[in-house]
Structures are given as C-alpha cells and as structure tokens.
Amino acid sequence: MITAAAFVLAAGCGAGLRGSLGTTAWRTAALNVVGSFVLGLISQWTGPSLTVIGVGAIGSLTTYSSFVGHWVNELEETSTKQANPMGALLLVVVSFAGGITAAYLGLELSERNLL
C-alpha cells in the first residue's frame, strides 16, 4: 500500500513538473532526454524504488504522446502557419539520438558508480 501511495505521489510530481515547465516541442524533447539520462542512472536499482521513481516520477515527466503531437504539428500546414518538415525531422533526431545517448551516459555512470 505504501508503494502504491508513493507511486501516485511520484507520478503527480513528475507530471506537475512537466506541466509547470510548459509544453513546447523543444521543452518536451529536453525533458525526454533528461528523463532518459535519469532512467539510465537508476537502471541498477531494484524493487519498489525503481517502480516509484523510474515508472512513476520519470514516466510521468517524460511524454511520448506530447512528442508525437509536436512532431505532427510541425508537419501540418494551417491557415496561420506553414508546415516545417525540417523542424519535424530535427525534433525526431534530437529526441531519439539525444535520448539514446543520455540513457547510455546515465547507464555508464551508474555502472561505474560515479554518481
């Protein structure tokens, strides 16, 4: 029961932090990269702490659905803006390459006990 309550609290904190920082495309990308780094750092953890922090807090801080929404928005042309396919491509590259690199760095730091 304590783990469930901690999970809900951690998820609320992660989502609250994400919401307080705003939801622009590049903020979402930055949060996803930071979240990937933290997940790499805590990948050695086991038990409830990994669930509460990794899935609860970091899972709610990062958001794939917002990333996809921003990507689609860059590709759409409306009466008030032109489509930006290069911006959409850059968003994908930064998000995926940045996330994979950040997760790797976090994992390396964790395995070497540097943090």
In percent, how much strand structure appears in the residues?
under 5%
Class per helix and strand makeup:
mainly alpha
Low-confidence stretches: none
Query: How many alpha or pi helices?
Result: 5
Mean pLDDT score, rounded? Answer: 91
Radius of gyration: 16 Å
Spell out the helices and strands N to C.
Answer: HHHHH
Total discrete domains: 1
Distance between the termini: 30 Å
| Helical amount | over 70%
Shape: flat
Q: Give the biggest sheet.
A: none
The total of beta strands comes to 0
Q: How would you describe this structure to a colleague?
A:
It is a single chain. The protein has five helices and no strands. By secondary structure, the protein is mostly helical. The two termini are 30 Å apart. The mean pLDDT is 91.
Pick out its properties:
5 helices; 0% strand; 115 residues; mainly alpha; flat
SSE order and pairing:
Elements: H1 2-21, H2 25-41, H3 48-61, H4 64-75, H5 85-111
Offer a quick outline of the entry.
78% of the residues lie in helices and 0% in strands. The protein contains five helices and no strands.
